[in-house]
Amino acid sequence: MVLWLREATEHRLVLNWQYEPESFELFPPATYPEVKQLKTKEKLVARCLHRGASYTPDFILTLTKDGKRMLFDTFKAAILSDTLSSGYEIWIDVKGSFNPNDQPRYFSVIQKAMYHINHIWVLRITPFYKKAGKPKGLFSDTRAPEKCRYMQRGPLNACGRACPNAEEFLRKQCSRW
């Protein structure tokens, strides 16, 4: 994702970006008072009913006007939500295509809590995967960074064959407008 963001910044689609920008408290801890008997006196202590929950998105990026136009289909949910009233900010959480322990369901709850409590829509982004032989994910929707397209010794890998490079993507987007 960092390679994608660096190239998007070079091509003036992204104005700036930050990794792990800030943490948000979703739910505070719940405590209750309890009297603890010491040798000579009583002391009031706080006992924990449950711990608090916080969340840190992976990235925040600010799109340029051209970036918003060219990447609209990819970031549509964030652009159409109320989070962009002050600018072109996109909050991103990067997830892999293989999700053990039911992480998509867990992230869905966090995504809804972030929107309900902080009015921030966090997009779940998967860089690249194949489903039923078809490429899916951010790289296939937009473009793959050059370092991700090639194997160590030179030939194109599966991502490179399936995803356009930056020039092909920009040419295609410019022809649409």
Give a written overview of the molecule:
The structure is a single chain. With 177 residues, the chain is of the alpha+beta class. It has one domain (2-25, 53-176). The protein has eight helices and ten strands. It has helices spanning 2-10, 65-70, 76-80, 103-118, 138-141, 146-149, 158-162, 166-176, and strands at 14-19, 24-27, 30-37, 42-50, 53-55, 59-63, 89-94, 122-125, 129-131, 134-136. A four-stranded mixed beta sheet has the order 1-6-7-8. Strand 7 (89-94), helix 4 (103-118) and strand 8 form a beta-alpha-beta unit. The longest helix has 16 residues, at 103-118. The protein is elongated and about 80 Å long. 19% of the residues are buried. The mean pLDDT is 78.
> Which class best fits the helix and strand makeup?
alpha+beta
The overall average pLDDT, rounded, is 78
Q: Stretches where pLDDT falls below 50 for ≥5 residues?
A: none
Helical residues, percent = 25-40%
Helices and strands, with pairings:
Layout: H1 2-10, E1 14-19, E2 24-27, E3 30-37, E4 42-50, E5 53-55, E6 59-63, H2 65-70, H3 76-80, E7 89-94, H4 103-118, E8 122-125, E9 129-131, E10 134-136, H5 138-141, H6 146-149, H7 158-162, H8 166-176
Parallel strand pairs: 7-8
Antiparallel strand pairs: 1-6, 2-5, 3-4, 6-7, 9-10
